[in-house]
């Protein structure tokens, strides 16, 4: 009986911890974001670079960062309602050309799901 109880408590603990992992770790995401910094900025003094600044990106409609010249393809998708929710952003960070074919972003994507979740968590700290 003690073994069954231990298994149930362990399973409950893993189940309760899963959403926290799925949300990502912003501190770890800051380190992964170093791969993005050549083209994107975040923070109080963020400005557009080769890519748009990413403050407030989570939940924002695509193509709306003021002063950035987006690809025609992204603007077309934005008119169709493309929004940077967690799911879309995760797909984009995995393989940008699958989400926005002929887009400007030359980055091939992040390979690890954990890195993607962590970057999204990090970006969510900038409103």
UniProtKB/TrEMBL annotation:
Domain spans labelled Cytochrome c: 24-127
Q: Which InterPro entries does the entry link to?
A: Cyt_c-like_dom (IPR009056), Cyt_c-like_dom_sf (IPR036909), Cyt_c_1A/1B (IPR002327)
Signal peptide (residue range): 1-22
What's the name of the protein? Answer: Cytochrome c
Organism whose genome encodes this protein: Aliiruegeria haliotis
Q: Which UniProt keywords apply?
A: Electron transport, Heme, Iron, Metal-binding, Signal, Transport
Q: Record keywords: Cytoplasm included?
A: no
Q: Which GO terms describe its molecular function?
A: electron transfer activity; heme binding; metal ion binding
State the taxonomy lineage: Bacteria, Pseudomonadati, Pseudomonadota, Alphaproteobacteria, Rhodobacterales
**SUPFAM superfamilies according to UniProt:** Cytochrome c
């Amino acid at each position: 009986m003690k073994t069954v109880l231990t298994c149930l408590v362990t399973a409950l603990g893993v189940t309760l911890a899963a959403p926290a992992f799925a949300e990502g770790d912003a501190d770890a995401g800051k380190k992964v974001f170093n791969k993005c910094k050549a083209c994107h900025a975040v923070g109080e003094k963020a400005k557009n670079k080769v890519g748009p600044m990413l403050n407030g990106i989570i939940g924002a409609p695509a193509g709306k960062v003021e002063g950035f010249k987006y690809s025609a393809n992204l603007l077309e998708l934005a008119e169709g309602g493309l929004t940077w929710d967690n799911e879309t952003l995760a797909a984009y960070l995995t393989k940008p050309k699958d989400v926005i074919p002929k887009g400007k972003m030359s980055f091939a994507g992040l390979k690890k799901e954990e890195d993607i979740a962590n970057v999204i968590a990090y970006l969510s700290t900038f409103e």
